[in-house]
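The passage that follows is intended for readers who have already worked through the single-chain material. We present the inputs for a multi-component assembly, then the predicted structure in tokenized form, and finally a short commentary. You are encouraged to pause after the input and sketch how you expect the pieces to fit together before reading on.
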Amino acid sequence: MPVQEGIYGLLAEFDTPTELVIAAQASYQAGYRRMDCYTPYPVEEAAEAMGFDEPAEKGVSRVCLLGGILGGLAMFTLESWISIWAYPLNIAGRGKWSWPAFVVPAYEWTILWAGLSAGFGMLALNRLPAPYHPLFNAPNFRNGATSDKFFLCLEAHDPKFSIAETRALLESFNPVSVVEVEH
Amino acid sequence: MEEIHHSRTLPADLSAPAAVLQWRTRAAGVTAVFAILAVLDLLLSHSFDAILHGWLMGLILCLSLTLGGLALLMVQWVSGGKWGLLIRRPLEAMSRTLPIVFLMFLPIAIFIKRIYIWARITHPEQALHNGLIDAMQAHAIAYKRPYLNIEGFWIRGIIYFLIFGIFTYFLNKWSLQRDTDTAHNNWYWQKKFENLSGPGLVVYSLVLTGMCVDWVMSLDPTWFSSMFGFMFIVAQGYAGLAFVILVVLALSQYSPMDAVLRKTEQHDLGKLCFAFVMLNIYMAFSQYLIIWSGNLPNEIRWYMDRITGGWGPIAGLDFLFHWVLPFFLLLSRDIKRNKTKLARVCVIMLFARCWDTWWLIAPAFPSERANLHFTWGMLEYIFVPGAMIGLWLIYFFTTLRSRNVVAQNDPHLVELMESQHAHA
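Having made your guess, compare it with the prediction:
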């Protein structure tokens, strides 16, 4: 990856999750899309405020569904292949392809692969693990994001981003501070 | 999302909206239409037995709404949660319809000899000799006589209703007393409800197992399955939950339910529905898989009666309505959070229960066993249960109207009044 230079985004710091959610929602309504909230514990409302409900944001659901379907199909096919070709067994005259018996393992694999896909898919879509993140260049973020501060970052690659206007918008939410973050 | 800054207040009037009376009038209309159709159909079919068969199906359906309500009521007391408070009053109203279900039970008990083969055949050896029944039936009827006899059926039936009546009585009485009490005593009430509901759920599962063995499984005295009781319990939860969600969604068009129902809890109820859809297919498929694996003549016949002779497509559609449709629809987050769409899924689920009950009951009778064919009498499986459910609904809307639809003095009520996006 080429070395990126310049400003990563503007980071606003808040004392309470309520202020953060209101700011995130207002920014979303003002047209910003490239943004993220950083909180010491999960704040579901922040995700909704940033447009989590929009269809474009449903990557994890899709990965999970795909994983489940593939897992179920894989096991069912494996069982069918074993029983018909690899090691044909005719149990109690039911025929080689006695599918009711295959349902339980196929179901288990559906669950297993849906779960694994959701977990790893979430990590991949979040671009995790991330050994480096520009936000840690901000000292207040380093100290506060994992303890008692709530952050909203409007990122510079958003088409609407402009240092002056974006700063003015963030200032209007009465944050503790607004700082520029370097790449 | 616009609700973020919107603070919510509980309306002063918590009684059921007047629309409930309108729904009751509509239910009365439905009852009248189906009752007339049932009588007209009797003139065409000349078969009183067909009415009784339809009546048994209607009884099972109304029972599943009543007892499904009672069971979920006890579950929400034991588990806690805001979703429980939301559906508590409709569930209580469902449980209080027990008397009308008892009245519906009486014709079954009175005409027992026309419905159950073990009641009709008093001397199995003689009936076997005359070719009325086969050897397996003769053996089963003679062997199970100590349990399957008319006196026992009556006595057990009355005991079942008494037991459920006791639980219904106290859960409903205390709930009303709690409404008028102060918040100070919340803990006392909570423990009191929990202590009744916990053992109540154990008793419920035992008694219901007895009920479905007596009323449904014994239609074919040769057959047995230890999974049957659990299948019925889950089916009642399935039907009861789908129905109560429909009621809450309908009530949320009006005050006071519109102030209490939030997207979050609606989503929770949708997820619970999804769990019941899975649990239901788990039970049904387990029973099928065990009997299919065993492949024993005395067990497999029950399924053969229900998948051969034209019943195969009915079983396939049962699977479609019961599992495929609700499962794939409820996977979606949007459908669970959309009132109209969730209501449609609930309607599919209730329809699936009707379809499944028909498939369970009808092939047990000799004329329909492994032989699906049109008769005028067959239509009674639509008309009689239709009229009975209509009647049940009239009674239900009356009980629903008789109390506030939102229970008070519950800590969850304060939480429900918080904005949708509770600010941690």
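Commentary: The beta strands of chain A are 7-14, 35-38, 150-155, 177-182. The two ends of chain A are 13 Å apart (CA to CA). How closely did your sketch match?
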